[in-house]
Amino acid sequence: MDLLKVFFWGLIVSFLGTLPLGTLNVAAMQMSVQEGISNALYFSFGCILTEMIYVRISLIGVSWIRKQKKLIKWLEWVTLAIVIALAIGSFVAAGKNSNAKNVMLNNDMNRFILGLLLSAINPAQIPFWLGWSTILFTKNILKPNNTYYYLYISGIGIGSILGNCVFIFGGKYIVEELDANMNLLNWIIGGIFSLAALIQLIKIMWHKDAAQKLNNFDEHSKT
């Protein structure tokens, strides 16, 4: 019963955490419409594998992760640059023709590898899972045991793919039902990426980014 509980906690937290609009799930949605469901799923699997690896590392190397604030801060700026590039790419595609693809996605890179790389430089998930794992440890739901860890991470993986499927299948369904063309979609997605970039910049400027969250998490853990 305890093992099922930790699995479902991982699944639910991961699923709900995937639903807010973000760089990766919107990119997966754009991919599903422009390249097909399979490429979008490969991309999502890559993203999720990186996330699961990060969670596993955080469970065994919390003290080391807390010391990497400079690296995480640098990754925040890299993420911002990529989101801006995705926004510009969508607007450029929208300005060309109805079939143009985002220039950032218009490449031959394996979509699984692309998902791995984009997810790897997204540091927001590190303090997110450090925080939730700490809560579950405190509530005695998650225990320092490999069986608990693997079930927890499995739940996280399944929850993430279910959340991504909402964007992959939902986005494709909406576009097909509304008979929307690629030009309109690129404008909309470009706007979403622009908003995401603005929010990211505000978080960095106001010290509400992943590095600061990690710092706050570190301070609370000492009290």
Number of domains: 1
Counted beta strands: 0
Give the low-pLDDT segments.
Answer: none
Give the proportion of residues in helices: over 70%
Report the radius of gyration as a whole number of Å. 18 Å
Q: First CA to last CA: what distance?
A: 32 Å
| Sheet/helix structural class | mainly alpha
The number of distinct helices, counting runs of at least 4 residues, comes to 10
The outline comes out as globular
Order of helices and strands: HHHHHHHHHH
Major sheet: size, sense and barrel closure? none
Name the average pLDDT: 79
The fraction of residues assigned to DSSP E strands is under 5%
3D structure, described in words:
The protein is built from ten helices and no strands. It has one domain. It is 81% helix and 0% strand. Helix 2 (23-34) packs antiparallel against helix 9 and helix 5 packs antiparallel against helix 10.
Overview in brief:
By secondary structure, the chain is mainly alpha-helical. It has ten helices and no strands. The chain has helices spanning 2-18, 23-34, 37-60, 62-66, 69-96, 111-120, 125-138, 146-178, 182-205, 210-222.
Keywords:
single chain, 223 residues, mainly alpha, 81% helix
SSE inventory with pairings:
Blueprint: H1 2-18, H2 23-34, H3 37-60, H4 62-66, H5 69-96, H6 111-120, H7 125-138, H8 146-178, H9 182-205, H10 210-222
